[in-house]
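Exercise: predict the fold of this chain.
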Amino acid sequence: MGNIIITIARHFGSGGKTIGHMLAEDMGIRCYEKEIIKMASEDSGISEGLFNQADEKLKRTPLFFGKSRGEYTGKLISPDSDEFVSDHNLFNYQAKIIREIAERESCVIIGRAADYVLKGNPGVVSVFVHASREYCIRQAIERRAFTGKDVEKFIEKTDKYRSDFYRYYTGQEWSNARNYDLCLNSERLGFEGTMEAIEAYIRVRFGRLPNE
């Protein structure tokens, strides 16, 4: 039986990350997010700080990243090249880790454009979790020490970063429903209901859940 990999993209405040961890726990599989950067650093020998700096640069200078530099191909750049620590090679190493994880085990992967990296893999279920702006604001205020205006700005900035990240490295639009198998409104379904909807889809498509 092949591995089943659930990739989750999400609006900030929609609960996508929480739902991903709930799914992983319920199905008895691992959930990967920031661990991917650490694993990519260990695999490449490139400082973990440089991976984080690339993300921060995208957050600080979004206009520079407004257009994609070309679709991801997965080709790694040699250590003797000046481009070895370029933004795209850092992404390529993260993508390498994502592909290796998917080959090795059933899992949940949150963010990092994993749906695109694993495009064509028959075991992938790509999910986009969204909710209304008002709901995301309420959720963010409940979970973080934000005021109303601060949280609106933070949500806008975070979702823009996620959209820019996706476009820059894949050439695709992050919020385009055609990129995903499922687009689910967590405000309507609740976290538990969203998890159950994903599991129901997996059962219909594969006839089983991971590890069954």
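Check your answer against the key: The chain has one domain: 5-206.
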